[in-house]
């Protein structure tokens, strides 16, 4: 849930209109309308009725207002922690290799620079394992691809959405593999470092649904080693697009067209919503919120 939408909701109540909220928040009025529509769709309720020129809360909106106030107050407290508290102790984060390697470096650098006394423990895990770690207090924060795990103990927030693709070497003969076919066997190696990754599960579902088989499979220790193998025409692989942007730009690899091109994975962060939030966790979440555009 986007905190900006909650702030807009509260500002409409304070000003009495969408136009007043737009003026106070320095938004276009269309932005205010879109934010409230998003919030209503997410909550599955109507929040305002228009009476004359004034926007009035519906009964559902009135019921939700205390929770909105609490969330905004909590966020303000988090900002206060990050600005005023001495950050020390430790912070434990679980994250898949792909996100850690290709998306987390700038935020980790900023956190280390601004909280040098915090011991940061990074645990590289599969995204199906991370919700368990968060719920059971084994880590403070999970950053991973949403796999649909739901728990009333865990608070989740969206960071970004990413396309996934099959990749092959630029040296490979063009159109040697066509995943739009059905009932085929391809003489190619599929390279993977995590058979339980969400993007590999999407790939396996795709080829199973089209009755496609691959003659060979190889497992490697890291994403970087897999990319080197792909570049050298040792097989194909599947990853979120941000993983191979550099190699694609250099013309070392290319995408293999497939039904998977329409598939996306959503990156989220989660924490235990019923435990005390430490200043370290609060500050890291604040950094995540300010860097959502990087995910």
UniProtKB/TrEMBL annotation:
Pfam families documented for this protein: HTH_1, LysR_substrate
Swiss-Prot/TrEMBL keywords: DNA-binding, Transcription, Transcription regulation
CDD domains recorded: PBP2_LTTR_substrate
Residue ranges of domain HTH lysR-type in the record: 1-58
GO molecular-function terms, A-Z: DNA-binding transcription factor activity; transcription cis-regulatory region binding
Transcription in keyword set: yes
PROSITE patterns reported for this sequence: HTH_LYSR (PS50931)
Family named by the database record: Belongs to the LysR transcriptional regulatory family.
Protein name (Swiss-Prot/TrEMBL): LysR family transcriptional regulator
